[in-house]
Amino acid sequence: MEALLLGVGLLLGAYVLVYYNLVKAPPCRGLASLRGRTAVVTGANSGIGKMTALELARRGARVVLACRSRERGEAAAFDLRQESGNNEVIFMALDLASLASVRAFATAFLSSEPRLDILIHNAAPAPGISSCGRTREPFNLLLRVNHIGPFLLTHLLLPRLKTSAPSRVVVVSSAAHRRGRLDFTRLDRPVVGWRQELRAYADSKLANVLFARELATQLEGTGVTCYAAHPGPVNSELFLRHVPGWLRPLLRPLAWLVLRAPRGGAQTPLYCALQEGIEPLSGRYFANCHVEEVPPAARDDRAAHRLWEASRKLAGLGPGEDAESDEDSQPEDPGTPSSPSSPHPEEPTASELYPSPQNSTDRSTVTRRIPVKAELEPQAC
Fold first, then answer.
1. How far is CA 90 from the centre of its chain?
2. Which of 4, 91, 167, 329 could tie 77 with a disulfide, CB 3.0–4.6 Å?
3. CA–CA separation, 359 and 208 (whole Å)
4. What are the backbone angles phi and psi of residue 59, rounded to the nearest 5°?
């Protein structure tokens, strides 16, 4: 009996250590009031996105839930208005897999919302999206939803972010970026099979980190800062969505024990969106409300710039659509069918997407990195 009690005690002690060191998320306490400010959260109808939107609404922000499903998005907006006591929580339709939908959202937002202070790219499908619930597409659907759609949306909303500065862009990434390896010769090719999907998911998360890094460089001096945020291991609906039905009852208790609740997963994105004093750390990657170093592939400035240029083409951005466009510029009407002569084709020609390494411009001649001083690293929230 003593041995049994000792074993149980050791197991409980080990779990407490795991919980407080890996599972429990430090709370974000940044900015007590957001009254008069506007935030957009993509994929905010459930999970991390919904909890993020709830905290923003509780602080008084006007919150736009940008979701693919109108039914679930409007239901989430109703729930958040009730729970937060803030009536300025609204739904707007956005399907990041469709460039036309991204443009339609940007047009509607720019025509109706005078401010944009916080843009949080949370919508991110788990591996399996290209083989579950959607018709197979002639492009990398994981990259489209996780990176290209957010890239285009950020680009189209930049004028409003700049006029509302100081403002922030937060890209919800993942520790999976450490396994990513971008192949620019096949960046947008469709993926087939779960092994390719896992690889494509990791690649898209690496793209998130590189995007935040390059965006920080592009926006230096504008008052708009950006951050990549890892929410940690979260027990959301995505975790069990692609698990066989017979296995789910076994995994649910385990997930409850060792994974964070969505509220915990929202803390680092909220920290990046709200914490004062982290502006000099724009472009960096955060986990557990701390800036964290990333592997060499995720801090490669030349790769970040090359991804930026490839993303512009994949997003169908024409040469006249740059980030310095006037505030009054509006996206082209996405209702117009695309054609080979259209300045915003839904699918660019594959042969035009990627510059050869021999012709790549030396990164040092294009822009310079933002200096980051070690002493500016923020304290834990």
1. 20
2. 91
3. 24
4. -85, 0
Q: Which class for 55: exposed (0-12), middle (13-18), buried (19 or more C-beta within 10 A)?
A: buried
Q: What is the secondary structure of 137-156 as a DSSP string?
A: -SS-HHHIIIIIHHHHHHHH
- For the segment 107-144, what is each residue's pLDDT rounded down to a tens digit? 999 999 999 999 999 986 644 444 444 545 677 888 99
d(CA 83, CA 66): 19
CA distance 69 to 79: 15
Nearest-CA neighbor of 377 among 276, 280, 287, 275?
280
User: What is the value of pTM for the model shown?
Assistant: 0.75
H or E segment at 176?
Answer: none
Cα distances (Å, whole numbers) of residue 52 to 207, 225, 298, 354? 22, 19, 25, 36
Contacts of 50 (CB under 8 A, 6+ apart): 44, 76, 79, 80, 262
Average pLDDT, the chain: 78
> Is 271 one of the catalytic residues?
no
